[in-house]
Structure formats: C-alpha cells, structure tokens
C-alpha cells in the first residue's frame, strides 16, 4: 500500500470537515437573518415597510439556502473516495472483527448505516423543511402586512 494514502485520507477528511463547518455556519446565519427580519417587521410600525422586510428576508433566506445545498453537495462529493480509502486503510475483514468485539462500527468508517425509520429526520432534510417553513412564513406574513392585517409595534407607527 502507498504510504501517502493516509495523508490523502486525512486531507479529504479535513476538506469534508471544512465544508461541514461552512454549512452549519450558513444555517446559523439563516437563523440570525430570520430573527432580524421578523423582529424588524414588527418594530418598523409601517405595514408596507414590514412587508418589504419580510419579502427581502425571504429572498435572502433562499440565497443562503442555496449556499447550504451547495455546501452539502461539496461536503459529500468525495465520500465514495473516502470510503474506498478507508477500506484500504482498514480492510473489511478487520472491520467485521472489530465490529463484533466492540458491538458497534469502528471509528474509521465514514458513514453510518442509514436509519431504518424516519429517514426524514436526517439533518439535510430537516434543514430543507425549516428553510421552506421560514420562506412560507415570510411570504404569508408579508402578504398580511401588505393587507394591513399583521401586528406591528403600536408605539412606533
């Protein structure tokens, strides 16, 4: 076996970790943007301006969501190579032997067994559901503001 394969494995894991951190920092940014948009739409005291805030927040949330999806694709792009190198570094017969003695998968494996129940509770699906809920909420509240039926701060207007 080529001695540099361990370095390649380490580099690919580092790249995967970098993309994963980027993904979750964008999710945090999305949460901050949504909090600011909702608070701002209440605080301005003007229905039209609040509606513009909400619709702008919806567009910004969608852009951030597209970056999150790109980060997910970039993060997962090298997974087949990482799996193959992992099999070279730790052959499957050794994996099975360790699995039997530890009663769990060894730490070298890149991916766990997919969940047998509730696969929609995986992170990538939860992110999508939450982002689309934010977007629907922004649009609905924006429409209510344009119709003059949403709550605004009474001390400002």
TrEMBL record:
Organism, as annotated: Candidatus Polarisedimenticola svalbardensis
Top-level taxonomic group: Bacteria
Keywords: Membrane, Transmembrane, Transmembrane helix
Record protein name field: Uncharacterized protein
Transmembrane segments: 23-43, 49-68, 125-147
